[in-house]
Amino acid sequence: MSSTTLPRFPSLLKDHPDAIASGVCAILVFLGWFTLNQGWLGLSFLILPAAYVIGGYKSAREGLTTLFREKELDVDLLMIVAALGAAALGLWQQEYYFIVDGAVLILIFAISGALERYAMQRTERSIRGLMSLTSDTARKLLNGQEQLIPVSELRIGDQVLVKPGELVPTDGVVIEGFSTLNQASITGESMPVEKVAGDQVFAGTINGNGALRLKIHQPPESSLIQRVIRLVEQAQTETPPSQQFIERFERVYAKVIVLMGILLATLPPFFLGWTWENTIYRALIFLVVASPCALMAATMPTLLSGVANGARNGILFKNGAQLEMIGRIKAIAFDKTGTLTTGKPQVVHVMTVEQAGDQLLQVAASLESLSEHPIGDAIVQAARKQQLKWTEATNVQAQAGQGITGDVAGKMAVVGKAAFVQTHANPCPDALTQQSQQWEQEGKTVVWVADTGRILGIIAVADIVRPTAKQAIANLKRLGIEQIAMLTGDNERTAQSIAQETGVDRVYAELLPEDKVEVIRRLQKQYPAVAMVGDGINDAPALAQASVGIAMGAAGSDVALETADIVLMADRLEKLEYAVRLGRRSQRIVKQNIVFALGFIVLLLIANFTGHMSLPLGVLGHEGSTVLVTLSGLRLLKN
């Protein structure tokens, strides 16, 4: 192996100081035991104190800081007191191997701390690995020339070139080119996704074989990957309620343990006839085995591992509390537009009169190509998909809320509502009227088209259901979610149509933002935990009111993303099932860890009071249980 591949010692010392301190402490403990065993007391009395200092310095500093600044006791200080007590007992009774026992206690506690920190760093690395998905530079196009500039200097409207195999530097919209992108790091999708003009791409995704020209539509710092990184950092600093409870419990528990330790160190010789040596020794072991280290490690490693797991699968939990909470939900409310549906109207049906053929969409596109209305844009897109060509309309006039008139190839054309179009055309066939009524009953918007006084046909436009919505809701029901509701400001007829198509249990239509909040409150009276899934500004109050607010990451507004507790990074509703399962699994692991930690403490205490526990064995059992609990929590790092 070449020297360039070996990590430098300063880097090792910086990245793994706890492990190095534990290693040095282990060497000193062995040398101390060896020299003591050889009868070299003077040398052992130099080596063993060094082991105490190197192995216990960090714990002593943290314990004393907590004591003097917060006026509280913690397990770090208890371990140091127990180790120093063993040393003092050894000097008093001239049983110098007690000093080695104290050093072993510090060593195992140091190793346990190093392993715990390594486990937490592994979780952090799993999350912070997202940082490696960001690019520092971008190929900005200016007057046909490439300029390699820092991503931070990009501005809205800039055009960027992404070559094959490169990372997409920031979120943008494809304006030229075709390629497939690996989005696994952002959305969890295993298969590459095709991207053409008009499609959005995300920073951190990997371009395939084609070159893409992008237009920047938002600042780089607002890209999806940057929002993910910021929210993950927030998740690491916030403490979930269960961990807060355990930390409060630990403070009270530590005081109780100290008080009981004092009583055990003073009363047994008077009431049980124990020797003072045995009494103090058992009291020291009690301080060690009764400390709640394993209990403290029962929650946070598990929840942070779950947060990391979710991030890898396109689900961003803003904190561990929401990972806990989503496992408890029994009711979910969905916004309709942009959540259960795509939020973009599309042409879903076309019905023409005889011999009209492609003329229907051509005439409609001629007029609507000059309109900025979403329905008009849907008609134009439909014509483009069929590769139809049309001439640009002239003398275009719009009647607000009614329709558009204009000249197409020198002939009068009309597009709009039935009553408006029929005033400019011959009587319409009954079949068109009947079909129009049926589509309107299904919640679709019907556009009529006429040319030179003759009705050509009708076009049905609708906001279509997301392809995965129906299956996602079915999966949630199989998980035992008792109520799935839809909240929308749309009319009852359209809402019911979407509900029937997706399998939603209950519909609340024609709601204002404050009405959505009231519905969430009513659901919360019926169910212990209620989730709300939305994407718009009008969903933000309901997202805040819900037990768990879930925002659509790509389609969601900034307000919704800031308000929500969980973000579906690629708007993939099918990931909700995974999120609920992950939350439930995290709850099970936390409960298992707590039961194991408390059970092990009880067993160690029983062994101590029956005289079957030595100090090194107590240390090994106590710290071993802490490491096992920490590693148990890391199970969630695996899918």
Automatic annotation (TrEMBL):
Belongs to the cation transport ATPase (P-type) (TC 3.A.3) family. Type IB subfamily. NCBIfam families: ATPase-IB1_Cu, ATPase-IB_hvy, ATPase_P-type. The keyword Transferase does not apply. It is found in: Cell membrane; Membrane. The lineage of its organism: Bacteria, Bacillati, Cyanobacteriota, Cyanophyceae, Nostocales. It comes from Nostoc cf. commune SO-36. The keyword Signal does not apply. Residues 133-233 form the P-type ATPase A domain. This is ATPase. Keywords: ATP-binding, Cell membrane, Magnesium, Membrane, Metal-binding, Nucleotide-binding, Plasmid, Translocase, Transmembrane, Transmembrane helix. Its main location: membrane. Pfam families: E1-E2_ATPase, Hydrolase.
